[in-house]
Amino acid sequence: MEIIQLWMAQGFLPHNKDRRMEDIGQNYFNDLVSRSLFEKHRIYKGLFIMHDLIHDVAHSAAGSICNVMDGTDTQMDFRRTRHLFITEHVQTLGNQIMASQLRTFLCNYGSKMDYSDFFNKIRYIRTLFLYSDEIEALPECIGDLKHLRYLSLEFRRIKELPLSINDLWNLQTLCLDGCSKLEKVPCIESLGKLRHLYIDDTSLEEMPLGIGKLTNLQTLDTFLLAGGGWSKLRELGRLNQLRGRLIIKSGLKYVTEVEDAEEAQLCKKEHLDGLNLKWGSCTDEVDDKTRRDVIEKLRPHTSIKECVLDGYMGSTFPSWLGDSSFINMVDIQLKSCQNCVCLPPLGKLPSLKILLIKYMNGIKEVGLEFYGNCSTLTFPSLKTLEFYGMNSWKKWVHPLIDNNVFPNLEELSIKDCPSLQGDLPPHLPSIRRLEINGVEQLQSLELKNSSSSTSHLEEVIVGLCKSMVSIGQIPLTIKSLRIKNCEKLGYVEFDEQSKNLSRGSDYEKGLRSEESIGVSSKAALELPLLTELVIERCPSLISLQQSLLLPALRHLRLNECENMEKLPGELHNITSLQSLMIGKSPKIHSLAEGGLPRNLRSLEIVEVNIKQAVTEWELHLLHSLETLRLINVGSSTDSVECIPCPHLSLPSSLSWLEIKSFQNLKTISFYGSTLPNLTRLYVIDCPRLESLVSNLTSLKYLEIENCPELHNFPEGGLPTNLTDLEIRGTKIDKPIKEWGLHLLTSLEFLILENVGSCVDTLESISYPDFPSSLCLLIIKSFQNLKTICCSTLPRLHGMFINSCPKLESFGDNGLPPHIELVKIEECDMIEQHLTSDPNGCIFTENGQYSLPLSGSQPSSAETTGT
After folding, report:
1. Which of 249, 517, 635, 749 satisfies CB 3.0 to 4.6 Å to 542 for a cystine?
2. Rounded Cα gap, residues 833 and 369, in angstroms
């Protein structure tokens, strides 16, 4: 923990032969937390905050000994300051600081100070944190800071540290994580007191010389191995005080001598919690026997808790992996071990809770060896098991005595295993979450635990299972069910007491009996906990059970189920339902009998063929409805000529309204009292729409597209609070200058495409036509437009211009100085005036350009500062 290392640097923590300073500091910190001087962050795990009142008391008690400069007050008294934290750029720091007495200097803004002079003044500094995006080198005089114990650098451009770093004999913590381009650290063998070294986020390719002599080192987040001879792996041998997690990064492929691995002495590092071994891309320099012998010698101490093997290319796993003596092992990840043909006996690990097996293409069968000794309880503590990207895996073999396997498994995930044909564990008494995704050969899924009367299953996700024909016996404990991309799925059964139906042969023959599609004649079945039901892209599914009672359902989504004919029965009685989406299911001709649930907040009906009269929908009764999307809903809207109307009355709670393909709609007439909360309105593909009348002051987003009979805007003008206006495919004849766009002082995005005759004679668009708030402008098919004068639009960052053949300039002053992107298509005239420029901000199909420098008009490159 960083704060403990800062305490150590100041000498606040006593030296004790029996206890580490870090442990003493942790006890101090825990005591402060218990007294509420520090509080755990509510969102970010591992972070702590200090209450403003506690901070103010601490600041008052510290007086002028501790100072924080934020750029606003540079007239502070620094005569007694020993600890200084600078949070923002300070122009006049100068000689205000009594540098000789500083013990702490933390500066997290990009300073340009002369570090040679500064380091000569802070000879007694103990804690130093520096940040810069520009500095490329540190002066050698940093080695004169003999009292320095904590050094953290975030220099984004520095590539090499000075040789004098090796002279910082008292250094305890060296953090270089923020030096992303750092390529070389000199010999550090003299830093005998170094306890914490952070180099993970750097560009180093190998460890600095002398790392093996730092026997007090306790934190080493990454150990780097380079090719070309001696691997330096043996330098880990004397570092037996290492704690936390050790990552040997991407270089184990270079280890050609077994002795290197043996001399690393990982088995003696009893304080390590985690070991991450990464091989990187395979090399032919090492034969299979050497790979196997190397990993065998990398056996960690049995106190290890986490182990990751990534990219190991040996044919077998080491004997120690799965050894029951590793009683503390809780997390194992096996990744990209492509040549291994069988898994280690991990079932014997008594404390293992998390197991990830990923990209193991050599595995064709998970057999009994995976479980270890099947006569005893196997995987007794495992809670999460995930298989991912196992392309060759075909079969999963289970012990005959299945009661002894996975007794506490809560999450099982099998993803992207296209060859697996079935044989999932038959007995998972504690399973809560099951995800099956990309298992293309799996034909059926039965979710009932035959050996257990009680099920804990809460969440089921099934996706991309091309051969899946049925999902049956889903228990009543289910809370979330999501099924996607199962093209042959025809049966979904929720009743865990269901009959054993013979379904497979029916599907193979294309038969669809009432039972085979999941329609039950039983009495109503209640799923009291189901809150989410999503079924998407399952074209063979005809119906769900009509006898279902779903009192807790909050979200229902049925999308791209081409043959589904009915919605779940009793839909109107689901008072908890908040969102309902029905999409691309053309055989659903009516909403559920009895109407829609009254508490809906979101209703989306997209590309269906609802024949039920829109008057029967009773939308006006949905007093909580906020989002309504009616897109290609079928003949039910043919009678609607105006909105609102007796046929289609809308609730005042609406904030989002989208309508598309209302074939006979002629008028939309909204007033503030009608829909006072409406902020988004989208009207698309309404071929007979003639008028839009609105004074909605709440409206911020307005899109009108493909309404060819619309000739004019509302008489009172456009809503003045619009931030986004998109108009496409209309026949507006009122001149743009009379639209009142300049009155829309909040407008940021404006799209005008094929808007009608209003642009036929338009030759110029200038600043007064647009509001100064505009950020993005898109125009298309302005056939006679010659000039766009936009240089004075202060916030304009982008323009897209298409099919304006006569456009030739951006006015006398060119483009705005802050423009970032101008994209031009099918504008031949102006393209002739552009100059090829890799730094230009004008893009066409042929390349990147700027405007030529001519007369008083600066080029685009000059105006943008590129």
Report:
1. 517
2. 73
CB burial string 26-48: b at 16+ within 10 A, e below: eeebeeeeeeebbeeeeeeeeee
| Token pair listed for 249 | 């990064």
Structure tokens at 309: 């093997």
Could you identify the residue written with the tokens 């984004």?
A: 156
Alpha carbon distance 294, 233 (integer Å): 11
Helix crossing, 21-34 with 2-9: angle to 10°? 120
Query: Helices then strands (H, E): number in the chain?
Result: 9, 49
Task: Extract the runs of DSSP E, i.e. beta strands, from 110-207.
Answer: 127-132, 150-155, 173-175, 196-198
CB atoms within 10 A of CB 309: 25
Read off the pLDDT of residues 708-751 as tens digits, 9 standing for 90 and up.
Answer: 998 887 766 788 899 999 999 999 988 888 888 888 999 999 99
Q: Please state the length of the chain.
A: 866
- pLDDT value of position 514: 36
Q: How far is Cα 657 from Cα 476, in angstroms, rounded to an integer?
A: 36
What pLDDT was estimated at residue 861? 36
Predicted TM-score of the model (pTM): 0.82
Reply yes or no on whether the pLDDT at 124 is more than 60: yes
Q: Which residues have C-beta within 8 Å of that of residue 38, sequence separation ≥ 6?
A: 29, 32, 48, 49, 50
So what's the pLDDT on residue 529? Answer: 93
The half-sphere exposure of 35 on its side-chain side, counting CA atoms within 13 A, is 8
Tokens of 758: 């209003």
**154-166 residue pLDDT tens:** 998 899 999 999 9
Structure tokens at 753: 């495409």
Taking alpha carbons only, the member of 285, 282, 283, 233 closest to residue 256 is: 285
Confidence of residue 89 (pLDDT cuts 50, 70, 90): low
Q: How is residue 614 annotated by DSSP?
A: G
Comparison of pLDDT for 767 and 535, the residue scoring more? 535
Please, are residues 313 and 287 in contact by the beta-carbon 8 Å criterion?
Answer: no
Peptide bond into 644 cis (omega under 30): yes
For the chain, the distance separating the N- and C-terminal CA atoms, rounded to the nearest angstrom, is 44
**DSSP secondary structure string for all residues of 246-293:** EEEES-GGG---HHHHHHT-GGG-TTEEEEEEE--S--TTS-HHHHHH
Place of tokens 């500064």: 118
Cβ partners under 8 Å of residue 13, min gap 6: 4, 7, 21, 24, 25, 28
For the record, the structure tokens of 93 come out as 């720091």
3-class secondary structure, 636: helix
Contact 265, 236 (CB under 8 A): yes
Q: Are 394 and 365 in contact (CB under 8 A)?
A: yes
Tokens of 157: 């451009």
Nearest in space to 684 (alpha carbons), one of 657, 711, 719, 651? 657
Q: Which residue is it, tokens 């000039």?
A: 787
- Dist. CA 297–CA 139, nearest whole Å: 43
DSSP summary character for residue 332: E
- Percent of the chain exceeding pLDDT 70 equals 89
Report pLDDT digits (tens) over 465-485.
999 999 988 888 899 999 999
Which residue in the block uniquely carries the two structure tokens 């060296």? Answer: 174
The tens digit of pLDDT for each residue in 272-324 reads 999 999 987 766 677 889 999 999 999 999 999 999 999 999 999 999 999 99
Asked whether the beta carbons of 464 and 437 are under 8 A apart, the reply is: yes
Q: Give dist(CA 433, CA 411) in Å, integer.
A: 5
Taking the C-alpha atoms of residue 223 and residue 547, their distance in angstroms, rounded to an integer, is: 61
Answer yes or no: are the C-beta atoms of 255 and 230 closer than 8 Å: no
Q: Extract the runs of DSSP E, i.e. beta strands, from 620-714.
A: 627-631, 642-643, 656-660, 667-670, 680-684, 691-694, 701-705
Integer Cα distance of 534 and 525 in angstroms: 19
